[in-house]
Specification:
Radius of gyration: 18 Å
Bound molecules: zinc ion, fe (iii) ion
Number of helices: 9
Oligomer: single chain
Distance between the termini: 39 Å
Shape: globular
CATH architecture: 4-Layer Sandwich
Helix content: 25-40%
Largest sheet: 6 strands, mixed
CATH topology: Metallo-beta-lactamase, Chain A
Order of helices and strands: EEEHEHHEEEEEEEEHEHHEHHH
Number of strands: 14
Structural class: alpha/beta
């Protein structure tokens, strides 16, 4: 299977998975780049997977459904372009004959879901929308810090080799913040060098992997003394894990 990030807007990626004939896409905020990719590859769009209700993830759904007849899947608890199959935690879908598990990961939005795809003889693939970014996480528009921490902890528990396909190219921004939080983290420095080299060539830094994110992403590392200590320099009363996470997210919002 080919896994391709289709750039959209300023910094979105619409992920496409295809076998040379049949394709699915995730979070098509814009139909045009998807239609172009389908035409260029001679591909039939069979499924559209949506993670949450924001317009930069749903704006192309109606046009793509009308043009291709693709089935649309999305979160049970959010306002979505109808018709679609609504999904909740633990649900399984089989687009392209592949098995995808659904995880409810509230935080960025209240009903945000993620998809974990299992492809024979390949590493698993995670489509996590705006929940986790490389070296970062989504803003808390509708959920609480406790919800987001739980959601990220579930994603971090996936196998290290899982390919992390988030919906925005925010990696360098995330790494800049990660350096401020953990200036002595050598993995952050090494990844920053690699990410700069990719972006200099206008290449995506993604997919990342769960294993990499556990070494560089401060939002997956709030249980570690290095991150908790840095947070407490600014928020002395942040002691329990949720308070540390909340203070870290606030720090990033102001960074
Ligand atoms: Zn969003
Ligand atoms: Fe987004």
């Amino acid at each position: 299977m080919k896994l391709i990030p289709i750039p959209a807007f300023d910094d979105n990626y619409i992920w496409m998975l295809h076998d040379g004939r049949r394709a699915l896409v995730v979070d098509p905020g814009d139909a045009n780049p998807v239609l172009a990719a389908l035409q260029q590859g001679g591909l039939a769009l069979e499924a559209i997977l949506v993670t949450h209700h924001h317009g930069d993830h749903t704006g192309g759904v109606d046009t793509l459904r009308q043009n291709t007849g693709a089935l649309v899947y999305g979160p049970a608890g959010e306002r979505m372009p109808e018709p679609l199959q609504r999904l909740g935690d633990g649900d399984v879908i089989r687009p392209l004959g592949l098995r995808f598990e659904v995880l409810l990961v509230p935080g960025h939005t209240a009903g945000h879901i993620a998809y974990v795809g299992h492809i024979p003889d390949e590493d698993p693939v995670l489509f996590c929308g705006d929940t986790m970014f490389s070296a970062g996480c989504g803003r808390l528009f509708e959920g609480t810090p406790a919800q987001m921490l739980t959601s990220l902890t579930r994603l971090a528990a996936l196998p290290d080799a899982t390919r992390m396909c988030c919906a925005h190219e925010y990696t360098l921004d995330g790494l800049c913040f990660a350096r401020a939080v953990e200036p002595d983290n050598a993995a952050v420095q090494a990844y920053t060098d690699r990410a700069h080299a990719l972006r200099d060539q206008e290449l995506p830094t993604l997919p990342s992997s769960i294993g990499l994110e556990k070494t560089v992403n401060p939002f997956l590392r709030t249980h570690l003394p290095s991150v908790a200590h840095a947070v407490r320099q600014r928020s002395p009363n942040a002691h329990d894990p949720v308070s540390v996470f909340a203070a870290l997210r606030t720090w990033k919002d102001q960074f």
